Amino acid sequence: MEAIKNKVMISIFLIFIFGLSIANVVDKDREISETENRPLQQFPQFSFESLLSGSYTQKFDKYMTDQFVMKDEWVGLKSDMERLLQKGENNGVYFGKDGYLLEVFKQEGSYFEKNLQAINIFHDKMPNLNTTALLVPTAVKIYEDKLPLFAPTFDQARMLEIAKNELTIDFIDAYNVLNEHRNEYIYYKTDHHWTTLGAYYVYQQLMNEWGMTPYLDYRVETVSTEFYGTYYSKANNHHLKPDTIQLYIPNDEVEFSVTWDTQNEVLDGLYNYDYLNQKDKYSMFINGNHPLTIVKSSIKNGKKLIVFKDSYAHNFIPFLAMNFEEIHLIDLRYFNMNPYEYIREHDFDRALFLYNLSTFGTDSTFVKLKAFK
Predict the structure, then answer these.
(1) What is the CA radius of gyration of the chain?
(2) How far is CA 279 from CA 46, 146, 244, 274, 276, in A?
(3) Which helix (H) or strand (E) segment is 306 a member of?
(4) SS3 353
(5) Mean of the pLDDT values across residues 128-136?
(6) How far apart are CA 222 and CA 296, in angstroms?
(7) Cβ contacts of residue 314 below 8 Å, gap of 6+?
(8) What is the mean pLDDT of residues 167-178?
(9) Short-list 185, 204, 322, CA closest to 252
(10) Does 37 score more than 70 pLDDT?
């Protein structure tokens, strides 16, 4: 009887393994992962050169991982099992209280100090340009009390203090303002960005620091109640409620346009609503990431601002657009022109470095500010 039971178990196991193998062969390859919001590895082209160099096997391994049949479901099952085992973290994301997902804060290498130096070098090369740095703590700092018991935390407050002391330009510390409003919906629960409400509070702080009048006459419109962000994709906890995306629409009649890269494409307004039908809904703000983005408004005050940024700036810019006629945004991760020549070609009133602390501490592309003259 025991022998029959073993044969049945082995048969089931072999059927399962061979079934998966056959499914992987016949299943159609996917080009992108909506869950992870990234392109997937396609079947690599074979050559003896790539085989000998090892690049073919690396790409093939990645292809097998990316295209594994029902990958999202298996990863979700792993997450569920870890939650049942009361693990407080999966794939670098903590399962926080009140439905918050909070990413483990990493400061890889020594880019934080190097990037502070790069901004000071920028100021030395552009001494007549009024320049400000705005570094934003991530949600894991504001919501430390929502972390699982004994979860390690990184001292972002110390990073802000170092930036304040070492930068030779004006520095805006957003921590106190955000912490004052911590009981409000200022960070998404499933995504790494702050919400428009969080950006709105810090916008007011920045305008006051600059001696400008913040625009406050908005109506709030909810455009999505089904937003699952980057943390949701990493943690694969499929039992969480989605986030809500809200827009602050000025009650005054103001027209906006957004162009990017070659400036041949134009977005009428500040939002690309087509993204609301996709996984990456946050890209609706100023049409997402581009090396160069230019935002223009019908406010004819002649003021021009250049912003070096990560994606935290995207839902911040609609507020700034009420105070500037033109805003030019440079993403150093993708921008390969000489930024100094670009600035000299335009008559900017101010420059702003706007980054969240996690990106700022790990971004290796600030070296471009040192390389160009």
Answers:
(1) 24
(2) 33, 26, 13, 11, 8
(3) strand 304-309
(4) strand
(5) 98
(6) 24
(7) 193, 282, 283, 285, 286, 288
(8) 97
(9) 322
(10) no
Are the C-beta atoms of 348 and 306 separated by less than 8 Å? yes
Whose tokens are 């990456």? That residue is 280
Beta-bridge partners for 305: 327, 350
Q: Looking at 27-36, 259-268, 282-291, 337-346, which range is the least confident one?
A: 27-36
Q: Are 351 and 119 in contact (CB under 8 A)?
A: no
**Residue 129 tokens, joined:** 């340009």
pLDDT of residue 85: 42
Distance, in Å, from the CA atom of 303 to the CA atom of 347, rounded to the nearest integer, reads: 9
How many Cα atoms sit within 13 Å of 265 on the Cβ side? 10
**Positive or negative: CA dihedral 301, 307, 311, 313:** negative
The first and second tokens of residue 83, run together, are 């939650």
Task: Name the one residue in this structure whose structure tokens are 């943690």.
Answer: 235
Structure tokens at 327: 């805003």
Q: How far is CA 302 from the centre of its chain?
A: 31
- The sign of the torsion formed by the CA atoms of 289, 294, 298, 301 equals positive
Dihedral, CA atoms, 319, 330, 273, 251, nearest 10 degrees? Answer: 20
Handedness of CA 109, 283, 245, 239 (dihedral sign): negative
- CB atoms inside a 10 Å sphere around CB 196: 21
Contact 249, 218 (CB under 8 A): yes
What are the tokens at 366? 């600030």
Q: The tokens of 232 are what?
A: 């949701």
User: What is the longest distance spanned by two Cα atoms in the chain?
Assistant: 88
The C-alpha atoms of residue 285 and residue 15 are separated, in whole angstroms, by 48
Assess contact for 197 and 185: CB atoms under 8 A.
yes
Q: Is the model's pTM score more than 0.70? A: yes
Task: Count how many residues are written for the chain.
Answer: 373
